[in-house]
Amino acid sequence: MRIHIRRPWELKESDVTPEEAFRQRRLIIKAAALAGLGAASPLQALVPSQGSGAVIQGLADTPYGKGLPLTDYEYVTSYNNFYELGTDKGDPARNAGSLRTRPWTVRVDGECEAPGEIGIEDILARIPQEERIYRFRCVEAWSMIVPWAGFPLSRLLQRFRPTSRARYVAFETLLDPEQLPGQKRPILDWPYREGLRMDEAMHPLTLLVTGVYGRELPGQNGAPLRLMVPWKYGFKSIKSIVRIRFVERQPGTAWSDLQPSEYGFYANVNPEVDHPRWSQARERRIGEGLFERKHETLMFNGYAEEVAGLYRGMDLRKNF
Amino acid sequence: MQSRTLVRRVLKPTVFCMALLPFALLLSGAWRNDLGANPLETVTRASGEWALRFLLLTLAMTPLKRLLGRAWPLQLRRMLGLFTFFYASLHFLIWLVLAQELSWRNILLDIAERPFVTVGFLAWLLLVPLALTSTRAAIRRLGRNWVRLHRLVYPIAVLAVLHFLWLVKADLYQPLLYAAVLVVLLLARLGDGRAAFARSDR
After folding, report:
1. Angstroms from A41 CA to nearest CA on chain B
2. Closest residue of B to A281, CA-based?
3. Burial of residue A31, with CB atoms counted within 10 A of its CB: 0-12 exposed, 13-18 middle, 19 or more buried
4. CB contact, 8 Å: B37 with chain A?
5. Helix B72-94, helix B115-132: angle, nearest 10
6. Which residues of A touch B114 (CB under 8 A)?
7. DSSP-H helix ranges across A161-274
8. Is B102 an 8 Å CB contact of chain A?
9. Would you list the DSSP string of B24-38?
């Protein structure tokens, strides 16, 4: 339980505009501006679906990321870090055939009142899915802009009624070297594990992703269910999840267990804190030509307005 | 045709053209804008790996000569060495211009603070005097010192493999493969050295 002692200069919760209202207002302003310009209304259009997966039914449109230039479907699904399917960027797309995503169940347990399992079919049928365009920034200093389909993680977590002892959420990828042959070699301590602080997990930007470009995820992108935390480096967004646990202590995570000096638990995108082996100030946008300039990396990957408050008072150099 | 002429007229031009092939492929890829999702990564990796491959090929010529009992590998050695320098310089230039975007402050900081960059830069720097003294005239002028100078190729090879090992995130398979080849090539020489020592002792 986090006890918040309000300092005199801080706003009370009741003074804060609810996020939904805030978004609604921005949406209205944006829409009005666009209408004024006589633009066709891009705010009401889903991204045209691409790929061969099943179309996600009832996908709702949202204003997230509207207007950002999308990375081509081909690149989003052929340039992947998913070491369980091979360490070359092209390996996951080549090897994804071995991953069976049906049937698929996710076990949710730990510090909660209603532990249990939920199948991917139930998730797709019972939880409304929405499309959100997010910036995606890899710790290797490249980035994409991707139209994900999914839903806020909080919507799933609430069903299992976490207790007050639940301070972190731990995630695990499927462990099955037959389906994920990369696990036959001890590159990371399999299964891949990730974690979030409870407030990060419950944040409205944090998504569980079921699809990309309007259709169900291909294996190489972490089918059938993956995390997407857009203000953190990509390795936090664990793929092919089979287990979610509410825990009291900060859980171990795959990359920071391997190399704690290089990969932290928080892994927030931060242009001012370099990876020990390369700068994080700028990024290469996937799909751009060899001679195009890099882009400035944005604090919290451009989501500072929404998430900076989660880390108020923390030394982001220490908690990298 | 005598075998020396055959080497000069046929083998050398063939190897020369083949050695230019990776460069030609990169050029055409850049021209057609067909270097994959991350073109900078593609050209950086390709130029770096080809530099390392040519370095190991260069080092393989002396053992190969012993193994085959023929002289032609030694006639290829200089050309392979110069291709090592060519691909290493390409790799270095790509890093300076495209990766660092000629930001000199960042370039110096990187060289000073990031060990894998430091050893990579050092490997390239040490290649420069070897490339400059690769002419017949330089060989004649330097005499015994030429041989001493060109022993730099061994520390260069070790630095180049370290550069690869230290830049990898987790999967060491590939750099270790190159390291293994280097160890074999160095051991082959160690054997030769001992044999030579034994001969001179007699």
Report:
1. 30
2. B106
3. middle
4. yes
5. 130
6. 276-278
7. 198-201, 254-258
8. no
9. HHHHHHHHTT-S-S-
Chain A CB contacts of B169 under 8 Å are: 140
Q: Which chain B residues are Cβ-neighbours of A279 within 8 angstroms?
A: 106, 110
- What is the pLDDT, as a whole number, of residue B1? 53
B157-166 confidence digits (pLDDT tens): 999 999 999 9
Residue A39 pLDDT: 44
Nearest in space to A87 (alpha carbons), one of B64, B158, B45, B187: B45
Express each pLDDT in A9-66 by its tens digit.
555 555 666 566 666 655 655 555 544 444 444 456 899 999 999 999 999 999 999 9
User: What pairs with residue A108 in β-bridges?
Assistant: A116, A244
Chain A CB contacts of B30 below 8 Å? 290
User: Which helix (H) or strand (E) segment is A151 a member of?
Assistant: strand A142-152
- HSE value, Cβ hemisphere, 13 Å, CA-based, for A265: 14
Q: Report d(CA A238, CA A151) in Å as an integer.
A: 15
| Tokens of residue B3, six digits | 């075998």
Residue B193: enclosing H or E segment and its boundaries? helix B173-201
What is the model's pLDDT at position B10? 94
Q: What is the pLDDT of residue B4?
A: 82
Q: What is the pLDDT along chain B (202 residues), one digit of tens a residue?
A: 568 888 889 999 999 999 999 999 999 999 999 999 999 999 999 999 999 999 999 999 999 999 999 999 999 999 999 999 999 999 999 999 999 999 999 999 999 999 999 999 999 999 999 999 999 999 999 999 999 999 999 999 999 999 999 999 999 999 999 999 999 999 998 876 655 555 544 4
Inspect the interface and report whether the beta carbons of B40 and A286 lie closer than 8 Å.
no
Residues A238, A173 contacting (CB under 8 angstroms) = yes
pLDDT tens, B90-109?
A: 999 999 999 999 999 999 99
Check B39 against A290: CB less than 8 A apart. yes
- How close B165 gets to chain A, by Cα (Å)? 12
Among A75, A188, A293, select the one facing B101 at the smallest CB separation: A293
Mark out the alpha helices in A150-234 (DSSP H runs): 153-159, 198-201
Domain range summary for chain B, segments of one domain joined by +: 43-201
Taking 3-state DSSP, the helix, strand and coil percentages for chain B, each rounded to the nearest 5, stand at: 85, 0, 15
A87 and B171: CB-CB below 8 Å?
Answer: yes
* Spans in chain A with pLDDT lower than 50: 34-42
Q: Which residues of A touch B171 (CB under 8 A)?
A: 83, 87, 185, 187
Q: A293 and B38: CB-CB below 8 Å?
A: no
